[in-house]
Design goal:
Layout lengths: L6 E3 L12 H9 L4 E8 L5 E3 L20 H4 L20 H10 L3 E6 L6 H16 L8 E4 L2 H10 L5 E5 L6 H7 L4 E5 L5 H9 L3 E5 L4 H9 L4 E4 L11
Parallel strand pairs: 1-9, 2-4, 4-5, 5-6, 6-7, 7-8, 8-9
Antiparallel strand pairs: 2-3
Helix pairs in contact: 4-5
Length: 245
């Protein structure tokens, strides 16, 4: 049985705030969400930060790559103006800042380990170590790691084997069950656009949690839940709310 929330705010606050910022997490919380998904990669000085794109320019001002900047340099950049002038000055938070915010507000987390190219194992290890060490000081329910990188998940497994893992696939490969078993994962996460009822049934028959991204249409959301999908990631926080059924 899936032990985690069923409706999860994508990148903190869905489409209601600049993604992966503390402002987004606050907005999701204000909308009643107590479950969030967000992305983590490393800076040049190996600090895990919450940001989706390896390349600067879309949501974070500047040029170059996240892995080319130190954390001090990165947090000086604007991560909110792209969304709207009200969010000018929003910053890229560290993983520790987000862990602190979410645990203080009793928000469950799906932490997507999103390594820059060539940094898979190091990112998985450091994200797992930081999360593991943080949770030694709290009794709140532990998060779930997920990643498209099986190497990153394997590194996380070695560093924090007690923190659950989920494999991420845009399109589910033929050997999905082999990969899941190698990582002792508890769930499989996939693109809702390509999931069929037959595949959903096979995943559930394997005893796995099944999660879908990014589900913004309420009709599709109900269809997926009827297929046995356990959890949905959504940007549409006002229509597919935390209590959506």
């Amino acid at each position: 049985m899936w032990p985690y929330p069923r409706i999860i705010a994508h990148r903190g606050g869905g489409s209601l705030a600049p993604e992966n910022t503390l402002e987004a997490f606050q907005r999701g919380f204000n909308c009643g969400f107590r479950a969030v998904e967000f992305d983590v990669m490393l800076t040049k000085d190996q600090i895990p930060v919450v940001v989706h794109d390896e390349q600067l320019g879309r949501t974070v001002g500047g040029n170059g790559k996240i892995c080319e900047l130190t954390a001090v340099e990165l947090v000086q950049l604007d991560a909110g103006s792209w969304y709207g002038s009200d969010y000018a000055g929003a910053r890229v938070p560290t993983l520790t800042q987000v862990l602190d915010f979410c645990t203080r507000h009793a928000i469950w987390m799906n932490i997507e380990i999103k390594p820059a190219a060539g940094f898979d194992e190091n990112t998985g290890r450091i994200v797992a170590e930081v999360t593991r060490d943080f949770y030694q000081n709290t009794n709140f329910i532990e998060p779930l790691f997920s990643s498209f990188s099986m190497d990153a998940l394997a590194a996380a497994q070695r560093s924090a084997p007690h923190i659950a893992r989920g494999t991420l696939f845009d399109q589910i490969p033929a050997d999905w069950l082999v990969q899941v078993k190698q990582l002792n994962a508890v769930s499989l996460h996939t693109n809702q656009r390509t999931l069929s009822a037959d595949m959903a049934d096979k995943i559930k028959q394997a005893g796995l949690g099944l999660c879908c991204y990014t589900v913004n249409d309420p009709l599709r959301a109900r269809e997926l839940l009827a297929m046995g999908v356990d959890a949905l990631f959504t940007d549409n926080l006002k229509i597919i709310g935390a209590d959506f059924v």
